[in-house]
Each structure stands twice: as C-alpha cells, then as structure tokens.
C-alpha cells in the first residue's frame, strides 16, 4: 500500500512519490484494467486518438471517478460504482477520502443524474479534478494532460490549435449524414443516450443495440419511391399450370377405367417414341409424355375409335402438335347432316334469286362465263378426309379440330410455299390466293404429307375380300384395307436393304385434289342437281380420268427427285444390328420418318411442313392478259351527224326516191320510215 | 454447343429431327473429349450434323483461347473417328455456292459443275476437263457459310479485350426474360459488317467491350428468325428460317446457351416467298 503522498485531495503532480506509483497504478490498473475491459469492451480505449479531443475535458480518470458525471458524448460507462470505489479504496488511500467525499456528493446509483450534472456543471471539470484528485503519475493515462508537453499523446497533437482542429474534424465526421438512411452518427448517439438517460433501464449496456435499433426504426423516414414492386407474373407460370392440369384427374375417373379395360383408342405413344428415339428422332421424353397425357384428354373428350400422334409442325410464332383421329361411326353422320342442310338452304336461295332476276327487263346481258365446276370435297371418312385431325400449340391446351379438306385447297397448296405462323386463324396471303386461312392450309399440308409418306411394312395390311372390281373402277383403287393377322415381320436388315418391303397404305392424292377421281362434266348445268354419283361412267371426251398409283404400292416405285431417291433407309443403332430398328427418312418431305421393328411400325412427322423442291420456288405467274373484244366496224366510233347533215341526207334520199318511183314505192316508204325512225332515235 | 453440356442441351433443343440417337450421343461424349486432348483445343463445340442422302456428317469445332480466331473443324461419319477438315477459303465458298441439291454422304464424291459461265471459261483446264468439287470442300464451305450467316451468341456472353482477343465473359449471368424475347440481344458470331455503319448516336450507347458484333435485328429479310419459348417458357429457342435446321437455345437467367445445326445443308432461298 502506497503511502499517501502530499495532500490526498490533490492531483498527483510531477513530484509525486515514486513509491506511491508502484502500488496504486498496479492495483488500479490491474483492477481497473479489468474494469476497463468490462466497461468499455467494445469501444476504443479511453483517450483514443480520435476521440481524444472531445474527451479532453474529461479524462479517463475522470470517468473512473465520476461515472454519473460523464458527458453524453462519452462512452457508455455503466461503472459498477461499488466495485469501483472499493478498488479505489484499496488502491489509493490518499484518494479514498476524497473519493468518498466525491461520491458522497453524488450518491451512488442516483436516480437523478441531471442533478448530478447540475451540481457538477458548476465547476470547471478540470479544476474540480485538479482540486479533488491527487497528482497523477507519469504512467497514468491522465498524467499531465492539462500540462502542456507532458500528456501521453502530446507528441501526436502537440498544438492546441491542432487539437482543436482535430476535434472539429472528428465531430464533423460524426455529423456526416449517411446516404441510405439520412441519419448521422452524432445525432443518433445523442438520441440514444438521451433516451437511455431518460428512461434509465436496467442494464442498458446489454440492450444498447436494441435501443439503437428501435430509435432508428422510430425515425419515420419517408421512402422516396412509393411504388411497390409488383410480383412478376411470368408467362411460364401459366403454361406450367396448364401442364399441371394434365396430371390432375378429371371428373370422369370411373369411366376412364372402364374404357381402359375394354381396349382404349389411346395409342402407346411412349412405346413408339422409344423406337423413334433409337433413330434419333423425336422430342425429349418429358415433352413426349406431356403429349401422351394430352392425347389421353382428347380421347376422353371426343368419341374416337382410333387415335395417333401424327407429329409436330414448327411455326414462326408457335408450333403445332397434331393428332390423327378416326371417329367411330355415329359421330360422323351428324356432322355431314349439318352440312347438307346448309347446302340445301343455299340452293333454295339461289333459285329465288334467279327468278327475280329474270323478271327484270333492262339489264346488261348476262355473261356467258361459267366458272370451272367446283369439285366437291370427299366425304368425311373416305379418301383424303378419312381421318380427322386435332391440333394444339402446346400440350395442355385444348384441342382444336381442323376442318375437312377440299380439293381446291389441295390444288392451291401445291402451288404455294408458306411457313406456318402458329395461329390457326391467320390469313394466307399468296398467289394463287389460297381459299381459306391457316387452318385450311395446315389441313391441306397434313393431307399431302400423309398421302406421300405414310408407309407400313409389306404385308402388315392387306386388302379386304377381293371382289374383282378392278375393271369397273378403272383401277381407281380400293379403299379398304385391314390388318393382316398373318403378318410375318421381316428382319430389320431386310427392311432396310430394299425399299420394296414397304408399302404406302394411304391413297395418294390425284392432281384433281381428291383420292378418287370425280368427273365434273357429269354435273348438269342447273344448280339444283344433288350430290353427284361418281365413277362408273363413260370417260367423257374432254377430261381424262386420273389414275393414281393403287393402294399398297411398294416404295420402290416412288419417284425420286433427280438423282436422289425418295427414301433413305438406315439401320439404327448401327453397332448392334440384331436389335436394331429400321428407320426410313423421306427425301421428298423432309421431316417424315417411319420405323419398323418386328411387328411394330410407326410414322411420324417433325418438320416445317414443306415439301422438298430442288430448284427455286417459282410462284405461279398471273394469267396472261385477256384479249379485248376484236375491233370491228360495228363498234367503231364515229361522230354523230349534225342536223344539217341529216337534213341534207334526207333531201338526197327523197330525191333518189322521186327518181326511182317505178315499182319501188313500198320499199322507199319503208326506207323513209326507217330513216325517220333513225332520225327519231338520233334526236 | 459445348461438348460438356451436350446431353442437357440436346434435351432442350430437341425439335424432333436432331438425328442424334442414343448411340451417337454416347459416342460423342467420349470422342469429343479425346479430340480436346489430341488437338489441344481449349474447348470443343459440337456443331451439328449435315444429313446426306446416303450418310450423315457429324461436325465438331475446336477453339483456342481466342474465340475470334479461325476455328478448326472436324467431321465424322460415326461420331467416333474424326478427320480434320481443311480451312475454308473464299474461293471454295464461292464455288460451293453454285452447287445445289443434297449432300451425298460420301466425302470423296465429286460434283461436276452443271453451269458454266463465261467467266469460268478461264478456269477450264487445257484438256477441257470440267471443274469438279469434292464433297469435302463443299462441306467446309457450307459450314463456313452457316457459321457466318446464322451462328449466334447472346449479348454480353463474350468480351473483347483491349488487345483484340475475344474470350468468355465470366460475369455473364444470362439474359432476362424480356431481353430474351428481343432479337437485339443476340449477336452474329462473325466479323461484324453493319457495326461501322451505325451512326455516332447509336454507337455512343454501345459498350465496346461487349457490343462488338452485329445484332440480329437488322437481318434481311425481316422475320428470318423465329423466337419461341418452349418447355413452358423456360427455354428460349431461336430457329433460323434461312438455313432450316439451325436451332439456338438459351435458358434465361442462366449461363446455358448454344446452337446446333441439324439439316440438309441447303440454304432456303425461297424464304421471301414463304414469309
């Protein structure tokens, strides 16, 4: 224990006892160090350079001595007074009395810090310190602070002017506002400490962060941007929802089960896709599965007999997924009846109009132009309209039925070459003008592709009972074919080797646009004629009956394009031929594929829907300019004769009449009458 | 497309006629890596396939560190053994443009010139032999034409250094959905042609390190690209209508992109009629 040196109330001066140094600082520091640690665990050590200027008025020793008297700008200093005073009591006898006296002035744990301030504020702190505390020893932090040249940091900020400047800089830095929140540290600390001192919570040091945060939150700062970000609804969400609906059970769950037991029209799309995948053809499996489910939905909605995934046609904006469907018997008839009713209604209207027209008298002469007879489309269920096609853009969307195809559309589709846009109602702007919109064009292309590229292994289909009808129909072709129960599949290798092992099972489309030839000249000229009977008539003079290749002709008869064969056959995969699948690629319709493996076969189309043409596409030229009416005297223009000329002509005529009066009076009179009539009309 | 990303990419791009069976894909996975080792490429792209009448050519490209340098091209008939193709010259490209029709599928097949112009008389050899082009050269020229015309990359995927070399932009995070719909976010991956013709005002908005290529916006004829969102709007797929069979895919907001050509190798000259 150091002996008290000098006046215990006096601050240590330079001449303080060395003896007193050792103990006091040690204990003080030892204890105080720990105190320091506790009290200021997170802040800078007191007397730190940056803050030194501010706390100049209150040195760390002052903090130690007057915990309640600390200024707001000081650090938090919840100093457990009791411990402190004890330490002091231990460490400094000389101070003890003074300390006690000091502490007594400010009762421990006072609830009225302001009072303390006030009483304290009366003194200049330095002087109070000076008077009340003993001399500091050089190693103590507070030593010589107020004595120029002897402070521990004097060498760093020697000049009071500079210290002032540093103090101002530091304060300015604290006053700098933040960009993001608009607060500055100085004000915020002021507010925090004011709040703490106002409310005097217990253990404020532990809840200091919360106090700070609450204060910040309480500062109502108006957000400059009052618009809230709307949650983006991506288009992918809608399509995802559509696809998810495919997976949900529909209402007719029980009915579906019955159908499945009894044989379903739903094709095994995945199995077909597997075989095509061996050849590298097809969409990826997820898409195929979605298409499978979409087909299932179609089958459950429409009364279909057979259904098949026909393929996918790419378009400019959207793609088409196409399903080929064959209706069961009942459905078809309803639709044809509707159409007939419409036709008959039109015919009646036409009749009425004709009668009205004939009654009118002065009308321009009727033109003798008869447009070429419209070739009627084939019945639903036969020929090119054997199958009905449904399309949709994406699996999950509702299926749309395509209208049946008419020969005129097929003929026109052969002449134009257009990309699909993906919208069924888009117009087709082309020359020759296509009769219909994109839905019709799509249907026409599907018909052409089917007729050209749907093939099956030889023997898979065979004709229904042969009746020897070949002669009658002029080889028009037999429509009926059925599956051959005695089909013996050839190996894939043989299928690939020669094209004669494949046959077409869809009738080809004639030039006329139909599969079965229709004789338009048979049609009577009135429009009252009913539906025509086709075939079995003598060949008229002008039109020759068109004959296409008969059904079930092998592919080896297909014409190639210049030196390119119509089909390319390959075995895939190549390295394991014993399990390979025979794949056929069409060169005339790029994108059409067929496979055969054992007893299974399939056709599919993936492409843009265009036929392969070697040269450049030359669109049809407009028809030549029609000749005008021949220029003859009967239509030659001449100036009308004037009245004088007419009178002169009349006079001349009369003279002639007078001269030739013998036996020609009647004729002359007639001439005169004619002349008068002419005169009248001319006038 | 990148060889490493091939399986995933093929899933995204499958438009039905990619012509890559499982066998081929498996073979590619192995042989492309070996190509990288043997030829010391920095990266290997699987370019696609050209379908001939009797066989199909599978094409791969190898690139060095500078992506703008001329690329090496290799072809294979079975995806396992690769042969290097000669580099394309202008003359080769010009002569190949005269040929029409499909590829035969045999690299040594020789095409005879069908049309002879007055200018070409000079090229006739003395013994009156007609000019022939080997299919290999036609293949090289076609690949070069396709790359020049329709090889595309997304904007900001590649960066040009001040020294002139082009390399991948590591901070490319993918195009956003709105950007992916616009044609101006895709660039032709060849020497720019239209860039110099832009007005100063337009050039001021460009960033020279990323906007150093032509964009697709001003391609003639307009409408020769189709932009579609597939797989429920998760992938944006661009298809060229000029060279039917070129498909470019990109998954927005990710780094995945690439293009592949699977077709007959013929330019669609009827495009103006078909739009």
Automatic annotation (TrEMBL), chain A:
Keyword annotations of the record: Cell projection, Cilium, Cytoplasm, Cytoskeleton
Localisation per UniProt entry: Cytoplasm, Cytoskeleton, Cilium axoneme
GO cellular component: radial spoke
Predominant location category: cytoplasm
Region of interest (Disordered), residue spans: 1-54, 327-379, 466-486, 523-545, 619-683
Biased composition (Acidic residues): 329-343, 525-544, 661-683
Record GO biological process: axoneme assembly; cilium movement involved in cell motility
PANTHER family xref list: RADIAL SPOKE HEAD 6 HOMOLOG A (PTHR13159:SF0), RADIAL SPOKEHEAD-RELATED (PTHR13159)
Name assigned to this protein: Radial spoke head 6 homolog A
From TrEMBL, chain B:
Entry's localization field: Cell projection, Kinocilium; Cytoplasm, Cytoskeleton, Flagellum axoneme
Keyword presence, Cytoplasm: yes
Keywords: Cell projection, Cilium, Cilium biogenesis/degradation, Cytoplasm, Cytoskeleton, Flagellum
Subcellular location, principal: other
Gene Ontology cellular component terms for the protein in this record: axoneme; kinocilium
Keyword Cytoplasm: yes
Family membership noted in the UniProt record: Belongs to the flagellar radial spoke RSP9 family.
Protein name per UniProt: Radial spoke head protein 9 homolog
Natural source organism: Phasianus colchicus (Common pheasant)
């Amino acid at each position: 224990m150091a002996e008290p040196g000098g006046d215990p109330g006096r601050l240590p001066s330079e001449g303080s006892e060395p003896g007193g140094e050792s103990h006091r600082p040690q204990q003080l520091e030892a204890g105080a160090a720990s105190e320091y640690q506790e009290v200021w665990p997170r802040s800078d050590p007191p007397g730190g350079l940056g803050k030194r200027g501010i706390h100049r008025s209150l040195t760390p020793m002052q903090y130690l001595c007057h915990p309640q008297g600390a200024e707001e700008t000081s650090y938090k200093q919840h100093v457990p007074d009791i411990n402190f005073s004890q330490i002091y009591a231990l460490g400094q006898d000389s101070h003890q009395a003074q300390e006690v006296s000091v502490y007594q002035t400010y009762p421990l744990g006072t609830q009225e810090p302001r009072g303390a301030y006030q009483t304290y504020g009366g003194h200049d702190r330095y002087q109070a310190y000076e008077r009340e505390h003993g001399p500091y020893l050089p190693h103590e932090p507070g030593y010589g602070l107020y004595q120029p040249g002897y402070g521990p940091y004097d060498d760093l900020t020697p000049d009071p002017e500079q210290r002032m400047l540093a103090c101002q800089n530091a304060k300015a830095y604290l006053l700098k506002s933040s960009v993001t929140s608009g607060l500055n540290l100085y004000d915020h600390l002021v507010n925090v400490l004011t709040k703490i001192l106002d409310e005097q919570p217990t253990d404020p040091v532990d809840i200091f962060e919360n106090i700070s945060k609450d204060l910040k939150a309480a500062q109502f700062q108006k957000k400059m941007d009052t618009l809230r970000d709307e949650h983006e609804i991506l288009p992918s969400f809608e399509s995802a929802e559509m696809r998810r609906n495919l997976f949900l059970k529909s209402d007719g769950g029980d009915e579906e089960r019955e159908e499945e037991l009894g044989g379903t029209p739903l094709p095994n799309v995945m199995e077909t896709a597997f075989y095509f995948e061996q050849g590298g053809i097809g969409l990826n499996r997820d898409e195929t599965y979605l298409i499978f489910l979409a087909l299932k939905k179609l089958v459950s909605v429409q009364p279909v007999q057979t259904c098949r995934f026909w393929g996918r046609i790419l378009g400019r904006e959207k793609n088409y997924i196409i399903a080929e469907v064959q209706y069961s018997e009942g459905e078809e008839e309803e639709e044809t009846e509707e159409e007939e009713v419409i036709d008959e209604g039109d015919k009646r209207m036409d009749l009425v109009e004709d009668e009205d027209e004939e009654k009118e008298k002065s009308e321009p002469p009727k033109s003798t132009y008869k447009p070429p007879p419209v070739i009627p489309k084939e019945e639903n269920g036969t020929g090119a309209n054997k199958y009905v096609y449904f399309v949709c853009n994406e699996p999950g969307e509702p299926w749309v039925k395509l209208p049946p195809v008419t020969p005129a559309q097929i003929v026109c589709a052969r002449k134009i070459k257009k990309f699909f846009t993906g919208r069924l109602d888009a117009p087709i702007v082309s020359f020759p003008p296509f009769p219909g919109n994109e839905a019709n064009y799509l249907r026409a292309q599907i018909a052409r592709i089917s007729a050209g590229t749907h093939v099956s292994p030889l023997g898979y289909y065979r004709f229904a009972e042969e009746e020897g009808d070949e002669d009658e129909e002029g080889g028009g072709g037999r429509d009926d074919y059925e599956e051959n129960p005695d089909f013996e599949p050839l190996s894939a290798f043989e299928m690939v080797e020669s094209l004669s092992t494949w046959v077409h099972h869809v009738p080809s489309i004639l030039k006329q646009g139909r599969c079965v030839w229709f004789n338009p000249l048979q049609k009577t000229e009135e429009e009252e004629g009913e539906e025509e009977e086709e075939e079995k008539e003598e060949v008229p003079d002008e039109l020759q009956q068109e004959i296409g290749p008969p059904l079930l002709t092998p592919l080896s008869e297909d014409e190639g394009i210049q030196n390119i064969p119509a089909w390319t056959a390959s075995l895939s995969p190549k390295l394991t031929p014993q399990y390979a699948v025979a794949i056929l690629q069409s060169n005339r319709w790029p994108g059409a594929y067929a496979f055969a493996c054992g007893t299974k076969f399939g056709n599919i189309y993936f492409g843009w829907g265009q036929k392969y043409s070697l040269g450049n596409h030359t669109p049809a030229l407009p028809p030549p300019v029609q000749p005008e009416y021949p220029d003859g005297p009967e239509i030659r223009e001449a100036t009308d004769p004037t009245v004088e000329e007419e009178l002169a002509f009349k006079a001349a005529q009369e003279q002639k009449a007078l001269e030739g009066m013998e036996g020609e009076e009647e004729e002359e009179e007639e001439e005169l009458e004619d002349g008068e009539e002419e005169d009248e009309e001319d006038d | 497309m990148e060889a490493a990303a091939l399986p995933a990419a093929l899933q995204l791009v499958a438009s039905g006629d990619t012509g890559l069976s499982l066998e081929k894909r498996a073979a590619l996975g192995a042989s492309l890596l070996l190509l990288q080792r043997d030829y010391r490429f920095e990266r290997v792209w699987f370019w696609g396939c050209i379908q001939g009448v009797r066989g199909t050519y599978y094409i791969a490209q190898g690139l060095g560190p500078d992506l703008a340098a001329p690329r090496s091209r290799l072809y294979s008939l079975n995806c396992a053994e690769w042969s290097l193709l000669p580099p394309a010259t202008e003359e080769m490209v010009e002569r190949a443009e005269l040929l029409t029709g499909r590829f035969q599928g045999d690299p040594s097949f020789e095409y005879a010139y069908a049309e002879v112009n007055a200018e070409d008389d000079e090229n006739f050899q003395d013994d009156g032999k007609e000019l022939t082009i080997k299919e290999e050269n036609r293949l090289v020229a076609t690949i070069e034409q396709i790359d020049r015309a329709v090889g595309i990359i997304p904007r900001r995927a590649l960066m040009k250094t001040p020294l002139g070399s082009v390399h991948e932009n590591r901070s490319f995070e993918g195009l956003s959905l709105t950007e992916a719909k616009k044609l101006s976010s895709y660039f032709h991956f060849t020497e720019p042609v239209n860039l110099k013709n832009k007005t100063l005002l337009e050039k001021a908005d460009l960033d020279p390190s990323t906007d150093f290529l032509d964009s697709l916006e001003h391609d003639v004829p307009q409408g020769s690209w189709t932009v579609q969102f597939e797989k429920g709007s998760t992938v944006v797929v661009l298809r060229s209508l000029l060279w039917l069979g070129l498909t470019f895919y990109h998954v927005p907001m990710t780094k995945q992109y690439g293009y592949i050509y699977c077709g007959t190798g013929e330019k669609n000259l009827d495009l103006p009629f078909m739009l």
